[in-house]
Amino acid sequence: MKRNLFISTLFAAAVTPLVSFAKNKKITERNNKGFVVKAGEARIHEHIQLKGVNSNILDIKISGKDTDGGFAMFEQTSLSQGRGTPLHVHFSQDEVFYVIEGEYYFQVGEDKFHIHAGDSIFLPMKVPHAWTQISAKGKMTVTFQPAGKMEDFFLALSAFSHEPTKEEMAKLFADSEMKIVGPILKID
């Protein structure tokens, strides 16, 4: 009887890592094929029109679904001169902006930056940040690492039938693992 218990225990101990690996396989298994997303196009969710913080258009170039949540990249066509985002914090994501066209004003912590086409800016997680569009129009890529809930955030922001209230915006930010901590950034 003790021998059977010993063999059962040994078998269970040997199989447990395999079962654990099988559960995690979905997370680590990826489609190992590259893809191209043409200029002016989105991989999914064609042209997400934002409401609330600005009325810019986002195209998903690389979805978090493509990277098992590792990162997501959007192209933003900026149509909202003088508008941007409120000062906010991402609790678990870094952000990188690369300006393709136009000019923007950023705040990261206490530091402020005026950036132009060709410039990049890194916004670390847990550091309050905001940006405002200076030029009449602009374009930039925005990368989130990890992807988090940003794709869903932008889709929810575009789904409002009206300009969202401050309360609706605060709830949407909170539901997306962010928090608004200050007003929209004004250009100094």
Descriptive keywords:
three-stranded antiparallel sheet, 188 residues, Jelly Rolls, 34% strand, six-stranded antiparallel sheet, 3 helices, globular, alpha+beta
Q: Would you give an account of this structure?
A:
With 188 residues, the protein is of the alpha+beta class. It has one domain (48-184): Sandwich (Jelly Rolls). The protein has three helices and eleven strands. The chain has helices spanning 2-28, 150-159, 166-175, and strands at 48-49, 57-62, 72-78, 86-90, 94-101, 103-108, 111-116, 120-123, 129-133, 138-145, 178-184. A hairpin with a 2-residue loop joins strand 6 (103-108) and strand 7 (111-116). The protein is globular and about 45 Å long. Mean pLDDT is 84; it is low at 5-28.
